[in-house]
Amino acid sequence: xxEVLVLLDHTEDGxxxxxxxxxxxxxxALGDVQAVWIGERMxxxxxxxxxxxxxxxxxxxxxxxxxxxxxxxxGAALVAVATHDVVLGxxxxxxxxxxxxxxxxxxxxxxSDATAVRRDDSGRIVADKTVLAGTWTTQCAVLxxxxxxxxxxxxxxxxxxDGPAATVREHTVSAAAASxxxxxxxxxxxxASDRPDLGSADVVVVGGRGTDGDFGPLEELADVLGxxxxxxxxxxxxxxxxxxxxxxxxxxxxxxxxxxGAGVSGAVHHRGGMQASGTIVxxxxxxxxxxxxxxxxxxxxxLFEVLPAVSAELRARRG
Length: 319
Prior knowledge:
This protein is 25% helix and 27% strand. By secondary structure, the protein is an alpha/beta fold. Strand 2 (32-38), helix 2 (46-52) and strand 3 (55-64) form a beta-alpha-beta unit.
């Protein structure tokens, strides 16, 4: 049976991010799933969590003489255990860089921003991904071994199975000489938030120029739905919200189950980062706004009237 290695996306506190279990779920259709954790801190229940989602082995890799947060170090560490014919991961900034290091070292082919992965009739790994700002959906066959596929957060629904805790195998890897010369002189963690991470949230409420800088109604709706708040480039450039909230070709790519765009026109730059969302709801007073062309549901109206009404109705229905 083929073996699939999943590079686990985790927090610095040692917890799995939801996208990690999504990748493990996707891997079950390709072969026996093993997982790899690079870094020191790991919560005690991680092997049990992975087992519940079908991973049989957890490779825990510790790196000596270098900071394991560096992507070059992670890439070199991954080479030490990546003997599998398929490697899956999350299509984050870090995931893409680590995959690139692995690909250079092994000659592997890489598909990033994939929305699905499978084997075709001849056993090749085939991934789906959208290109040209979401205009086309393509199917990419990887002809090398290993094949590396990075899945967008939210592209796969994490589904548990009845399995035992993953068996932990410890590895200690010495960093390459070039990596040992790198020193992290300062590290500023992202401020903690009660809202989910923008890149992996199931619900994202997004504001654009139409908010005129007032994100209050959007934040209220996001809190009701348990979602994240995002923004267009215009909103971040105006300083209405931090640049880490920008969605688009030069920002975060999101694939939530539900995207709600309020006061968002739907420029090509922004559409490239959200068009693969499950259900798209657009709220804009301009009926000619381009976002209505891709929306599943459209409301022509003032977001400052619509959003509070929606939040109030949702609260009322929940009692």
